Each structure stands twice: as C-alpha cells, then as structure tokens.
Amino acid sequence: MNSLVQDGRKAAERVGLLSDTIVINGGRPLRGTIDVRGAKNLVTKAMVASLLGDTTSTLRDVPDISDVHVVSSLLEIHGVKITGSAATGVLQLDPTNVATATSAEIDALSGSSRIPILFCGPLLHRLGHAFIPDLGGCRIGDRPIDFHLDALRAFGAVVDKLPSGINITAPNGLRGANIELPYPSVGATEQVLLTGVRAKGTTELKNAAIEPEIMDLIAVLQKMGAIISVEPNRTIFIEGVDSLSGFNHRALFDRNEAASWASAALATGGSIFTTGAKQSEMMTFLNVFRKIGGAFDIEEEGIRFYHPGGELKPVVIETDVHPGFMTDWQQPLIVALTQAQGTSIVHETVYENRFGFVDALVKMGANIEVHKDGLADPNRRVPRRALEQAAVITGPTQLHGAELEVPDLRGGFSHLIAALVAQGQSSVSNVGLIARGYGDFVGKLEKLGADFYFAE
Ligand SMILES: CC(=O)N[C@H]1[C@@H](OP(=O)(O)OP(=O)(O)OC[C@H]2O[C@@H](n3ccc(=O)[nH]c3=O)[C@H](O)[C@@H]2O)O[C@H](CO)[C@@H](O)[C@@H]1O
Ligand SMILES: C=C(OP(=O)(O)O)C(=O)O
C-alpha cells in the first residue's frame, strides 16, 4: 500500500467512513441545502491556541474532519482534557495539566497533518521544550518550514532537526522579535502569533499573511487577553503578555468548503444553498463565479450558488495570497471550467506542484494542458514566482466515468465533482483524504441527491 493510500485509510477511520472507495453514477445535478461549519484552517489553529490559556476554552462550529481528530489527539497526549466532540460541533479544551508526551505517542501522529508545527510556541511557553513529529498535509510541492524555524530562532528558540522530527528548546525563554517573512505564509504568520503573544516584549512581523482565518485566530487570541494590532502593509505588532485565559468562540465558516460546493453546483448544473457561508470572506471567489456565468443569492443564513442556464464562459485566474484568488479554490472550479465554452487559464502561483489532480480529469475526457514552468502572460496581475505552473482548460467537453484515486484534499473533491458531472459510472478511491477537510461530505452528497454507494 503506498503512503498516500495509508494516509487516506487513517483519515477514513478517524471519521468513520464505511470504506475508502465510492462508486458514483454521474449526470445528475446537485440540488439542496448543506451546512458549512467552521474552517479547517482556523479551527485546528484555535485548538492549538487553547494550550496558551490558563483556563478552559470552548470552540463552536467545529467540523467533523480528520484534521480536527489529529489535533485533538495531539493535544490529548500533551495533557489537554477535551470534552464535547467534533460530531456535535462543540469542543471544550482544558489545558490545566499540560505535560510532555512520549515519543511513541507523538510518532503515532506523524505525517497526518501540518498543524503540529504550530505547537512549537505554545509548548515552549508551557513546558520549555517541544518535539514536533514529521508533518503531513497535502503533497502539493516541497512545503518547507524554513520560515517557521527562522521565526522561532528569532524568538530565542534552539532548533535541533532529528530524523524522527524536530526538537526545540528555549533555554533562556522567548523574547519578542523583529521578523520579516520572505513570502506572506499563512502557517508562518500563525507561528509568530502563537509564539509572540506570550513572548517577553514586542514582536513586529512584516509581510504577514492576512487571510480571514488569520484574522479569526487573532480574534481568538484577543479574547484570551493578547494585544495584537494589524497595521496597513501586512505588518502585525504583538505586545507579549504574562498570561492568557481560555476563550469562547464560534469559528469562522469554511470558505474553501463553500467554494467547493459552489463549484459542484455550477459544474453539475444544479443549485446548492450553503448555510453559514458569508459574502465578505468570499468576494474574490464570487466575482470569478459570476464571470464564468454562475449565479448566487446572498441571504442572511448563507449563500445559494446555482447554474442559471445558458453557456458558461472561460476565465483567466491567478491564485494568490488573500485578498487574491485562493489556491484551494482552483481544483473544484477547474471541473466547472471543463464545461465552459472556450479556453480558460489557471496560473497557480502559491504552490509549485498543485495540478496533480488534472491527469484524472484528462482521463475522463477533459481538455487540459499543464505547463510545468508556468505561462508568460502580459496581462498578469500577480508577480510571476520562480516555481509556478499553469493549466489551460478548453471546453466544453463531455466527461465520462473512470476509475480515480484521490491524490490530495482539494484535488479529491474535484474528482468527486468530475464523477458527478460525467456520463456513466466512476469509482473514486482513497476518499479518506477528502475527509481531512470536508465534514460529512458523504451525508451532504446524499442530501444533494447524488447517486452513489460505498464499494465493499
Ligand atoms: C492548514 C492550513 O491552513 N493550510 C493552508 C495554509 O497552508 P500553509 O500555511 O502550509 O501555506 P503557506 O501560506 O505557509 O505556504 C505558502 C507558500 O509559502 C511557502 N513556504 C511556507 C512556509 C515556509 O516556511 N517556507 C515556504 O517556502 C510554501 O511552500 C508555499 O509555496 O495556507 C495555504 C495558502 O493559503 C492553503 O493552501 C492551505 O490550505
Ligand atoms: C493544502 C491544504 O491543506 P493543508 O495545508 O492542511 O495540507 C488545503 O486545505 O487545501
């Protein structure tokens, strides 16, 4: 069994999927209403933040996704008492008895998620040392952690890379630092926030990421007693404080999940009301959705995304940091673009290898060329990065059923959509990886009228 399939199996077990393969009969529009809970990219970080408090934190709208289970286990082996459950959407996290975990306990969680790297600052503050296992997450490029480690060193941490993970100590405590990120990395910005809030003195972070999930993490930290100001030009100031308390927070909705179901509605010619989705965090997506020919109604309770009839139009997209077009949105949308009249281009500028899912779409009949060194384009708005790729999608094409294996979270969701659009039957294996970030996606497919069953 290859390691991707192993990762998928573990994720499937964590959320209780019946098997790791789904058989889909395509050709039916998805119609109905689904709930979008808290964002994977905020909830997991807020859970880590609970380690910094002296009292219990309560987090609401928690999605039942495998990454939440991984972070829960990592917190529990460090002595955090967790009550409630991802299934019910509410977690209480009591960090009173934080303690060192054994290496066997840590090893068992190796390679399952990217979140463990964010335990560094909180564990250094609580215990004076941290051991971080090998990271998991989507395999969409090298995904180095040099910005994280450089930031931790700037705070005074001593970093020792071992074959089994990273050992970090802070013999003289952590003190505020002046840090400038080479690129506005989401994870490295969170690393600085989670470390700087309890470091001695002031921290200045230049070229920070300002994604909505980061703003919501700042809101969580402010509720805990932190002093953080976000200045213009991507600069964040943090005044370290001596202690923090627990928080009570309803997580920001998952805009990536909402965008994925929106793309599914468009690609299948259907209509999906995403309860909990909000306009303000999705404006860039909504503009592109409208340009392609999709329609949406923004309501108090959520957003309805639908195909209003007529032809879909091609578009040129450049993925970018917020407020640009998010890299996690392009994969499901590309399936809709296979149904548009004409040639679309997607420039992927954030990760150097994020079109792995495209081969399967081509096998299903899509006309997509991947340019591994990117594409020159005089109309580009995002500065060209050294390692970027582009996909050129020409449509419309009739997709037909095929055997697919999920390569990563968003690519996997795009495979599901492609199978739902295709004529005939598809089998999609390794769907456990989709459960890393899409809560109850099987129940939601059922609610939306998809025709599918789990393979034995
Ligand atoms: C759990 C989580 O929140 N995941 C999100 C987070 O990932 P993550 O936080 O890992 O993504 P980053 O923003 O850090 O990565 C952006 C770019 O910076 C590079 N980089 C990053 C760190 C580092 O130390 N060195 C370095 O070179 C990466 O290789 C990548 O090319 O933001 C990404 C960009 O919005 C999203 O696609 C992911 O869904
Ligand atoms: C890349 C993603 O997640 P992670 O950083 O957890 O791998 C994603 O959510 O698409």
UniProtKB/TrEMBL annotation:
What lineage does the source organism belong to? Bacteria, Bacillati, Actinomycetota, Actinomycetes, Micrococcales
Q: Which PANTHER family match?
A: UDP-N-ACETYLGLUCOSAMINE 1-CARBOXYVINYLTRANSFERASE
The UniProt gene name for this protein comes to murA
In the record, biological process GO terms are: cell division; cell wall organization; peptidoglycan biosynthetic process; regulation of cell shape; UDP-N-acetylgalactosamine biosynthetic process
Q: Which residues form the active site?
A: C138 (proton donor)
Q: Which residues form the Enolpyruvate transferase domain?
A: 25-445
Question: What organism does this protein naturally occur in?
Answer: Herbiconiux flava
Q: What is this protein's name? A: UDP-N-acetylglucosamine 1-carboxyvinyltransferase
Gene3D superfamilies for the chain = Enolpyruvate transferase domain
Sorted alphabetically, which SUPFAM superfamilies does this protein's record hold?
EPT/RTPC-like (SSF55205)
The primary location reported for this protein is cytoplasm
Which NCBIfam families does the protein's record reference?
murA, PRK09369.1
Instruction: Look up the EC number in the record and give it.
Output: 2.5.1.7
Residue sites binding phosphoenolpyruvate per the record = K40, N41
Q: Name the enzyme's class.
A: transferase
- Catalysed transformations (reactions): phosphoenolpyruvate + UDP-N-acetyl-alpha-D-glucosamine = UDP-N-acetyl-3-O-(1-carboxyvinyl)-alpha-D-glucosamine + phosphate
Which keywords fit this entry according to its UniProt record?
A: Cell cycle, Cell division, Cell shape, Cell wall biogenesis/degradation, Cytoplasm, Peptidoglycan synthesis, Pyruvate, Transferase
Q: In which pathway does it act?
A: Cell wall biogenesis; peptidoglycan biosynthesis
Where UDP-N-acetyl-alpha-D-glucosamine is bound, by residue? Answer: R114, D328, V350
Q: Which Pfam families match?
A: EPSP_synthase
